[in-house]
Fold each of these.
Amino acid sequence: MANDISLNDDELERYARHIVLRHIGGPGQLKLKSARILVIGAGGLGSPALMYLAAAGIGTLGIVDDDIVSLSNLQRQVLHGTAEISMAKVESAKSRLAQLNPHVDVRAIPSRLDASNAAEIIADFDLVIDGSDNFNTRYLVNDACYFGGKILVSGSVGQFDGTLTTFRAFEAGADGNPNPSYRCLFPEPPPREMAPSCEEAGVLGALTGMIGAMQAMEAIKEITGAGTSLVGRLLSYDALYTRFHEIRYSWDPENPLNGRAPTIKDLSIHDLA
């Protein structure tokens, strides 16, 4: 933990702009160095999130992705370059992050997250950033983080719009009720025609950069205790009209995960997905 580690001279200079911040300081930087963060996906959201987390000095970064870099990725997945086309994304990401900050331990996990491995993979980390691009994975990550007692920072993008929120569903809120989970916010996935993939509908590259960087920001806040958490608040960004909206949401006692009568007892439900 932070009390058992220190910053060497190179790190003190590297993180100097953090260390002078009142809400971070030396103690906060040590928390970042001892933190273990898992990023689901090394794509549009995962790329900026990973880069800013590595630059911030997160001690251990895990990356789960089973895809390879393709030319059509490069419009938004800035962690990769033309030379990395056809390379596994986790290996491309690991190489780039090592150049960015050699003090970070990057764990490449070239797998698709599913019900058979999610709990085991997530168990090794303190916080999870979900940069996935489909509802099945988002529900799986949400449920695995709930059962594993892990903080989840969730982001999504579509064309010119993005959203961001944080879940700590394994804890109770100030009112004594459980904190909400993804299943309180989205009880069931929307019809496919209402949520087309980026491949089908397109997405503005810079938008993924904004939301992914904000996911890194919220993760840093959760680790250091700086500022106010996004638990119970959904931040929505409309890039076309440059507008932010905040929607407050709360625990749904009827939700099947952490409601009053939960029907989801483990991750086996996702074997059916």
Amino acid sequence: MTEFWTDVLTFAETTTARVGAQLLNEFGQVTAAEKADGSLVTQADRWADEELRGAIAQAFPAHGVLSEEVEHIFPDQDWCWIIDPIDGTTNFARGVPIWGISLGLLYQGTPVFGYVHLPPIAQSFYGYWYGTSGLSGPTGAFLNHQPIHASTDAPSANHFFNLCARSTSVLQNPVPCKIRMLGVATYNLLTIAAGIALGGVEATPKIWDIAAVWAIVQAAGAAWVPLETDPIFPLKVGEDYSQRSYPTLVVSQPELTETFLPLVRSVANRSANPSPPTH
């Protein structure tokens, strides 16, 4: 499968670079509308979604697609791409230079490859995580083609723990790290893969927020801790994923689960009655 994975990486890299270059021309200059779930959308989101779906159809015609803006039903195909055309639309619309394009490739319903490109800061993350899929190929997680790995440090006041806008209830407890709120679900968790932060929580991410990073953070040695009992993957053919959220804790090493999990237990309950999103 070496040639296949080379094609996948090349496609993800060139396509997100092309789409990202156009999005940079509109960054901070677009009008955002509010969707039914309270999140923002711009014409740039819709354009990028269409471009990405079209590129996948041309390069991988046998693969399915699930996307934030259009395709919400998981298809009956072994291979499926899950795309978020702009993760961090609020940042994008308001001129904050942290937002990205996310591509996750699933095999039989579970992510095995993820690619996230953040055009304003010229960072591209990718990784391979085969789990029990039976697939083989390249391994590891990378930032701009350089290997990355989650931190092995112990928590301290000089380390970071990331929150999302819906997880501020965590602050009712003493947190053994400095708090950061980045406004982009993918980047929130990717900083853990890169060894920048020791942990992070997302209260209401959708499947397109987590499909790519699920593979990358685990390939980097971090631990993914769902805050609900039902497993996230594999996804189910024919199911509509437009409304489903997946409250999640990610920590840089499994041993830190017992440190941070008690602080974020309320997040899962809050996700059932969310306030308007800010991503």
Amino acid sequence: MSAAAPQPAGWHDCRDTFSKTVEALAEADPRIVTVVSDSVGSSKLVNFRKRWPERMVNVGIAEQTVVAVGAGLANGGKIPFVSAAACFLTARAMEQIKADIAYTNVNVKLIGQSSGIAYGELGPTHHSIEDMAWLRLLNNLTLIVPSDPWETEQAIRAAAALDGPVFIRVSRMPVPDLPRSNARFEIGKAETLREGDDLAIIANGVMVHRALAAAEALAAEGIAARVINMSTVNPLDEATILDAAKTGAVVTVEEHSVRGGLGGAVAEVLATHDPVPMRILGFPGFLPTGSADWLLEHFNLNAAGIADAARQLLARK
């Protein structure tokens, strides 16, 4: 993988927040342990290992085993944070996530690191743009896609407090802190970051920042776009989605395939309750080789592309 571009001032790698939060939780609760698949460095857990070597299990490059060990530790009364690259944690260990975690409803916290297209030039083998579609089928698995460092910390803390299986996507792409006037995180509750009655833009993860920028551009044209951060994909905040439908048009934006992810989840709600014109923005399928930034630009997952989709949708109202 090529060297990372310099991080803009005020932007943060959410993996750092993940590791600091897990350390803080571990200080207060001896049940907190970590399980990794040769991913100590990429999970930013080097300091955790230094402080509590006896509370980390490194199974090596064996994702099926990392999930199974996490399930065993949970059955023994521990609260395991199983951390590995999202692409391998889900694709290689889907059977174990299904049978050992979801079916048995054990208290394991799965952390999909470097999610979406964060691995860039390493290509489709390392992209994780199918994970939400696969995991959404497991109805009791809580799915969270945080948008920034603050929400990442809140999601990790909420997951630790919840008695049940959780999967959290943690991106390595630096992002700024989102502007929030009344910051409050609750699993299963969406966050309205900008009001608007002309249409609604529903996004999560790193795409929330771009959705806000699109709304700003639309505002300059007299278009009031509501921006909703749907960080929890399961359970889904259906009430907020149906309220968004009252604007008459909905755009969803995600760092994921257009099939089966956030857009699919929102479409299921609207199709069965209140159909309105809708656009699902994401990736069409296997992606060409390129940096994460280039891929987002190439597939118009930027402020300009989101704003253009909104304009096209409004033309259909």
